[in-house]
Amino acid sequence: MIETSSLHSSRRTEKIDPAQLSLLLSQLPDEDKTELADLDDSVDDHSVDTGATDTDEDSEPKRRPRRKRPPKDLPRKVLKSTLKENARLCPCCHEPMAAIGEDVSELLELVPAYFRVLECHQTKYACSCCKAGIITAPGPAKLIERGLAAPSLLAHVVQSKYDDHLPLNRLSRIYARGGVDIAVSTMVGWVAAVANELEPVVAEIRKRAMASFVLQTDGSGLKVLDRDHPGGVRKGTMWCTVGERKWVVFDYAETGSGKDGPWTLLKGRTGYLQADASNTFDRLFNGKVASAIEQGCLAHARRRFHKLKDSDPRAAVPIKLLAKLYRVEREAKTQNLNAAARHKLRHHRTTAILAKLKEWLVRTASREPPEGAMAQACAYSINHWDALTRFMDDGRLGPDNNLCELQIRSLAVGRRNYLFAGSDSGAKRAAVLYSILRTCALHHVDGYAYLIDVFEKLASNWPNSRIAELLPDAYAARRDAETPKK
Q1: Could you say which DSSP state residue 66 is in?
Q2: Is residue 464 part of a domain?
Q3: 49 φψ region: left (φ > 0), alpha (ψ -120 to 50), beta (else)
Q4: Phi and psi at residue 124, to the nearest 5°
């Protein structure tokens, strides 16, 4: 189905040690060595793995971790250590020694989370004269009518399962250790209720995504319990769409067909659409269901050569050239270039790299039997060259679909823990909540704090005409405005 579906089943990296790459390059024919020498060879050690993993290409190179001091704004408990009077006598004159200062060190303590009951007292009022009736002061608004859970508990359940990837049965045991027994079925009901309440928010996120200049899309399988299926479990598909690198929408489909997925979800798309070269997406580009502008993924092209690196040293050539290309992308990010400047830099630096790559692909493929692994790897890039290099048309476009794959990784990690969705409706609820939490992540918003805020507003009958004010970007703006400047 989707080429990347198998990718999301396990964590995978394609990093290449610089020494290994140098060894591969040393085994190349002189012809290939000469072509690489014609280009600037100042690619540093980190650049050989840029774009090589299923992560965002904008991520910075990893640095060696350093121990950090605890944040100054954390609550503090001061522990004073003093000596008893007989222990601070001067060893020379035996007189008491005076305090002249103190050494201060820090220990980081964990105070386990605890449950607290909000006991709600609603005062009743009655007229002592006519005794016409009784008026009761309103109680706190509840998202779930007659429900026990406050917004903070609902937010914790949602984040624990869909952000921290904890199955609800494990979460139930954790809560029991905290002194409260909450049945898994109860939490399932809570999740269903909040997902239903959040659907208008996701609908607004979808509207923003679909209006984006560029969309990224991908899909991954999800097992769903089905008693009528011979194996008791069947496989649905979770489709992910990312707009403008900040709006994330997950959609569940009961099958992996284009009809149940992209052909319906992206029908009528006319702008840029970045995806892998699966024929599932073809109808989005050929006018049958949409007339989107196809943009390919260089990470997928590179992945085919990475698989050959241990059996064919020639794979080092495209790997090295793509490393040079990603170095240009990293420089543009480091310099914080706008779209126009990024476009100019690419044409100044990347054009020659792509020309060398295309020349090598065509020449190598012509010398290989068509059924050979190297010929097929080359053919993939040659056949999809226009789509793979479309990022050169506009500085707002990126060379790969890694950001979308990164969102799906969150689903993949959770899938390894809870194994399957309990039903199609459960999978659809998961799509709503993944959409919310992944959009929060791209806006650098704490999902827990955000959900509490949104649940409190929704419980107070927030008007549908103001749903846009509940989006993560609006929440971030309010948070920043309310945060005192240091």
Answers
A1: -
A2: yes
A3: alpha
A4: -100, 145
Q: Which of 202, 401, 396, 212 is nearest to 292 (CA)?
A: 212
Please give the residue range of the domain that contains residue 200.
188-294+402-482
| 437 falls within a domain | yes
pTM of the model: 0.84
Distance CA 377, CA 382 (A): 9
Give the tens place of pLDDT for each residue, 273-310.
999 999 999 999 999 999 999 999 999 999 999 999 88
Enter the DSSP assignment of 98: P
User: Are the C-beta atoms of residues 438 and 250 closer than 8 Å to each other?
Assistant: yes
CA distance 322 to 318: 6
Q: Which helix (H) or strand (E) holds 173?
A: helix 168-177
How do beta strands 247-253 and 272-274 pair? Answer: unpaired
Please count the residues of the chain.
Answer: 486
Which tokens in the block code for residue 143? 């998202």
> 240-276 b/e with 16+ CB inside 10 Å = b?
bbbbebbbbbbbbbbebebebbbbebbeebebbbbbb
Inside any domain, residue 232: yes
422 part of a folded domain: yes
- Residue 89: both structure tokens together: 């006598």
Strands 214-225 and 247-253: unpaired
Q: Using CA atoms, how far apart are residues 383 and 381, in angstroms rounded to an integer?
A: 6
Residues 6+ apart with CB under 8 A from 74: none
Using one digit for the tens of pLDDT, what is the confidence trace for 414-458? Answer: 777 776 788 899 999 999 999 999 999 999 999 999 999 999 999
How many domains are there within the chain? 1
The residue that leads in pLDDT, 61 or 207, is 207
**What are 28-37's pLDDT values in tens digits?**
666 665 656 6
Between strands 233-243 and 214-225, the pairing is antiparallel
Q: Which residue has the tokens 């503090």?
A: 76
* 447 φ, ψ (degrees, to nearest 5): -60, -35
In angstroms, the CA 307 to CA 332 distance is 29
Q: Which two tokens stand for residue 176?
A: 């029991």
